[in-house]
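Progress note, project year one: complex with adenosine-5'-triphosphate.
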Amino acid sequence: MVAPSFFYLCPQTNVLMASHDDLLKNIISHSKEYGFIFPSSEIYDGLSATYDYGQYGKELKNNIEEYWWKAMVRVHDNIVGIDSAIFMHPTVWKASGHVDAFNDPLIDNKDSKKRYRADVLIEEHIEKIRAKINKEIEKAAKRFGDAFNLNQFLTTNPRVIEYNRQIEEIEHRMKTALETGDLQALKQLILDLEIVDPVSGTRNWTDVRQFNLMFATELGSVSGEASIIYLRPETAQGTYVNFLNVQRSGRMKIPFGICQIGKAFRNEIIARQFIFRMREFEQMEMQFFVRPGEEMEWYEYWKNNRMKWHRNLGMGDARYRFHNHIKLAHYANAACDIEFEFPMGFKELEGIHSRTDFDLKAHEQYSGRKQQYFDPELNQSYIPYVVETAIGLDRMFMSVLSASYKEEKLEDGSERTVLSIPPQLAPVKVAVLPLVKKDGMPEKALEIFHQLKLEVNSQYDDKDAIGRRYRRQDAIGTPYCITVDNETLENNTVTIRERDSMKQERLDIHNIIQVVKEKVDIIPLLKKLM
Ligand code: ATP
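Model obtained:
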């Protein structure tokens, strides 16, 4: 296993945790080496925060999409899926508030000419204080050994108490400045904390400015204001402007949902941590239209449903938690995140937002077209309220990799790297391997492979010793390996090896398809959501 290199105090739970600071680096290099994710335009030294999915990455992504899509449109009779265009009429983004308010506060260092997010600089400063607390804990844990009581230490150690007070004060000042849009106060906080640019080491900062995260481009050949068009920063607006199209053409009755999977673009000031924060990414969003006044009930429903969807995968319930938003977006009356424990700690994986009637109302106002639904049961028209679930496909991908990546020392002293991806999501479901490349074994194995390949994604491999072939399949997360050996030719049985336990069983050739399909089928997962 990857050795934990130090302990840290999880700020949200006050629990002492082992930090795997090398884990992210290992996942990134493994992803490249085994065809999951490549840096974009790598032969030109790459393009920051942009990645390409390789042959196994694409399969894993497809499987995550399928699990999400079916959990929405198959499990729920009242949810349908659409695919709206990335380009939309520019007024859409005026109505949604993105032109005026989809901003991050940025600050430049005059010496290094580097640009930073002001709130991130402050958060990183807070992290440094937290690191000091962790150092204190580490020292004390060593000193007191088994008698160490973490809670007592946190509430009585004067240095720790002072550090926590500082954190609280900084957070309060930052939150107030962000909420009131007081950019001067944000800069003052950076100056007061004596934050230096990590590159130049100086405090020669510009004023803080708002930076809009939308990418703008021009439509057609006419230049000028009128032809400016945006790459969508979320898929949701494509759903809102089609709300009545879908409702009428599908004769949908409220409550009902519309979901879609598609690309979104945000000009993030700092995009990093691998595929966690990119400038081009993919979202899986669902807008659920409900009667006004019933939104909180549905908000609770979707919170539970989405958490179940995640936990269903069996990657460890403790890796997920809810985080309620303290500062609500202008359109929301309730919002929370499902956070996942990534290698860099608990971070947002999915958002669940009660968006009121903000968006549809704004589109009614800006377009001059009614966005009302006639409710036959109430005999009245109204603009529905919306509960949204929004998950990043790439972040979901990263959560699967983070939970699955393991370096193991085996009983015989050898080592292996295995991706214990949930079988239903694994890119390759089964590998068919002749034990040796002679005695008719390859022919038999190929016969089995050709029968399997249309049923589930399969591979045939006859290069190198069998042990090395198992390792290769472990490294890409293949849950099952079928091996054709001498006995196969005698009695039509093969061995099936399970990836995580490495246990092997004998199986009649005629049962292979059924056994493998049962193990990798997503239907049992979907049934648990019904
Ligand atoms: P964050 O606070 O991390 O910037 P957000 O709250 O702005 O995210 P939403 O607008 O709610 O995110 O988008 C829904 C989901 O899309 C997020 O939960 C996340 O999984 C994903 N997402 C958002 N921004 C990015 C990005 N730059 N790269 C990858 N995924 C993203």
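The pocket of adenosine-5'-triphosphate is lined by residues 234, 266, 268, 277-278, 281, 283, 348-351, 390-392, 394-395 (CB under 6 Å).
The longest helix spans residues 118-144.
No further modelling is planned for this target in the current period.
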